[in-house]
Amino acid sequence: MPGLHPVGDPVRHIPPASVARLTIYLRALNTLLGEGIERVSSEELADAAGVNSPMLRKDLSYLGSYGTRGVGYDVQYLNRQISIALGLTLDWRVAIIGAGNLGRALAGYSGFVSRGFEIVALFDADQLVVGAEVGYLRVSAVDDLETVLERTRTNMAVLSVPGSVAQELCDRLVAAGISSILSFAPVVLQVPSHVQLRKVDMSTELQILAYHAQRAQEPDLGPISRAQ
To answer: Which residues does NAD(+) bind (predicted)?
Structure first.
C-alpha cells in the first residue's frame, strides 16, 4: 500500500506527544476492526480519537503513512503499522513487583495479552502473600527477584510498591538487565540514561482533574469582571 512502510522498515524518531496519540489511534482502529469497518477517512479516525485531522495526518506521517486521497486508510493495515511502530509486535514479558491490591488488579487484567503484554511474574516481600495464586500466577518472593526474572525471560517490569523500597527495587531491576520500567511508586526514581522509566502518579492526575473541575464550575464573568 503506497505511503506505508512495509513490515521491518525502520521508522523515524517519533515525538513523545505523537507516540501518546498513536496509542489512541490504535484503540480507535481496534474498535473499527471489531465493527467490521475496513476503511476510514482521516476525518473519521481523528473524530474517533478526539483530535483534529491535520494533527492525525502529521502523527501518521512519522510512519510514512498518508493514506489515499478520497479513499482513506486501510484499517487493518494501519492498525498493523502502528502496532509495529509502538513495538507491540515484539514479545513483551512483564513482571509486577508488589502483590498488593494494585499489583493483583494489574496481574488479573485480561486486556494486556491482547495488546502484546504477557504478565509472567508477580513478586512480594510479605511471606504471608508469597506462594499465593493470583490468576494463573503464583506470587514469588522478592528475595528471588533476579532468579525469577532470568527464568521467565522478563524484559519489562511494573513497580507497585511503597516509596520507601522503590529505589532499591528499581536498582535491582536495572542491575538484572531490565531497561523498561513502569512505576506507580509515589517517589521520583533515579535510573541510568539507557533505562526507559514511566511514572504513573494518580494523586497528581487527580489534582489536575480537580483544577479543571473547579474551572468548569466557575461562572464566566468575562475579562473585565475577572480583572476587577
So the answer is: 98-103
166 among annotated binding-site residues: no
Q: State the average pLDDT over residues 176-186.
A: 95
Domain tally, the chain: 2
Quick one: average pLDDT of 191-219?
A: 87
CATH code at 42? Answer: 1.10.10.10
Residue 88 grid coordinates? 507491540
Phi, psi angles (nearest 5°) of residue 110: -75, -15
Task: Say if residue 72 is in the same domain as residue 125.
Answer: no
All residues at 6 or more sequence positions from 51 whose CB lies less than 8 Å from its CB, including other chains: 21, 24
102 annotated to a ligand binding site: yes
Residue 212 within any structural domain of the chain: no
Q: Is 99 annotated as a binding residue?
A: yes
Q: Whole-structure pTM over 0.85, yes or no?
A: no
98 is in an annotated binding site: yes
